[in-house]
């Protein structure tokens, strides 16, 4: 059932304009789904496994650093959410997994994410790993088109974002255009839960 919901969200996100959506109600995944583990090169140095982030909620997005619209807008909302959480913002991992691994090396990701503030982690995706986990996230991406055909070397990709709990379980899926306040409410709820 949750895969059908994810697919619908992805399709809605893929058809979205670059303006934020008025729909900001998240899809709650109930029961929560345990996600597959994977390891990718990280902007923080070395390889990072998804399971290395257990113990804290993870706000996750698939995108790329040269994205002209969806990615920076979504990451800016992540930054606002983290700032709104105050000191609790440090208890949340914010992760961008690149769908453009040829360009988005760990160093490129680190430089890009510094623009959104401290605490953001970039992971250099690779096609094999992204294909393996794509069904769990409803992830779609295609090189050579970009959103609204802004450039021929862009990447068209789904625009959903995800909130994973402290135990590595998918809890919420959000459409593009979700406001920071929505993320904040759900993150606070997760932080109040017993691990």
Total separate domains? 1
- Could you list the spans in which at least 5 consecutive residues all have pLDDT below 50? 1-23, 146-151
The N- to C-terminal Cα distance equals 26 Å
Overall body shape: globular
CATH topology, anyone? Glutaredoxin
Q: Which strand order spans the largest sheet, edge to edge or round the barrel?
A: 1-10-9-4-5-6
**Sheet/helix structural class:** alpha+beta
The portion of residues assigned to helices is 25-40%
Can you describe this structure?
With 195 residues, this protein is of the alpha+beta class. The chain has a single domain, classed as 3-Layer(aba) Sandwich (Glutaredoxin). It has five helices and ten strands. The protein has a six-stranded mixed sheet with strand order 1-10-9-4-5-6, sandwiched between helices. It has a two-stranded antiparallel sheet with strand order 2-3. Strands 7-8 form a two-stranded antiparallel ribbon. A hairpin with a 4-residue loop joins strand 9 and strand 10. The longest helix has 15 residues. It is globular, with a radius of gyration of 15 Å. The two termini are 26 Å apart. The N terminus is likely disordered.
